[in-house]
Amino acid sequence: MDSEKTRLQLPLLTEFLLDTILFAMEDQSDTYYLDLSTGEVVSDQERRMLEWETDENVEEITDDERYIDIPDWQPSDGFLVMEKFANQVRNPIYKGKLIEALQAGKGVFRRFKDIIGEQPSLEREWFTFKDEQIKSEVYTWYREHDGALQLLELDLEPEELTDDILQEDFVIGSSSDELPLEEILALQTSLREEMQKGNATQRHALLLLEPKLQNLQEAQFLYARTGEGELAGFISYEIREEHTVEILFFGNKREYRGMGLFRFLFDHFCRQAARKGYTTVIVGLAGEALSLDKLFTPLGSTTISKQIELNTNAWNESHPSTESAFL
């Protein structure tokens, strides 16, 4: 029966499934689950009805194995997103209005919505920002349950509209400017510790990255600072040959993820590289960064290397033993 259980895994995260999960997360009137047997989102009532049905293919699978909770999203989560958005609004008048509305107590959500509605461009930015924040929760949830995202025809980064927000909120610097090497190395250490404390895939990805991380002091950098001067993220790279550069490592602070900051940084990096005559960029993806593959494949990128992790029992149980040949 083990072979039956192994087929219960997260389904491909299609656009339709993502939209269904997002709807369920914001619906406070019911509890929802992802049915790993069918790959569908079901309500608590639908789940109880399904439990009465008999499926001989999954009869040995417990409900705890078949159903997983969709990401939790409470009104308090929505409030935090509103607060985060308000603090990054550049227009001082609307920034003040939004912060004041959030501190007013009862009727917060209505007042916030009314103020946002006064300015169409601000309203568009809000919906884009909110959409990316809640999608980020789903992506993180998938990583926690599956080790790596399996995405189909999804935009992993925000729409171009968000670039205007990022352009206002972040300042790009490079090795030619005053280099905050100590800050970058501190962020690098923090990211390494985060990967070390993560799941097995993250820890194994760190093993692959470690040799590159030892030489970052000799690398060149592109980095992003907030308007207040805080280091938010960076890309480190090395020149490999006349027209080729390799990205060694990249990362953003946790509070700046899900905003499209990597794509924003990478866009600046590519344009600077092209101006300097570099026509080829080598990017290594590992761990959670595997999901960024969808950012590059539409551009005709070429896979030049791939590393996998495999459970030895999975191989041994699927193939007859050949050890006797060595006896």
Low-confidence spans: 1-6, 147-161
From the 3D structure, determine the CATH topology of the largest domain: Aminopeptidase
Annotated CATH architecture of the largest domain: 3-Layer(aba) Sandwich
Biggest sheet layout:
5 strands, mixed
| Helix/strand class | alpha+beta
Question: Could you name the CATH homologous superfamily of the largest domain?
Answer: Gcn5-related N-acetyltransferase (GNAT)
| Percentage beta strand | 5-15%
The secondary-structure element order is HHEEHHEHHHHHEHHEEEHEHH
User: In total, how many domains does the architecture comprise?
Assistant: 3
What's the number of extended β-strand segments? Answer: 8
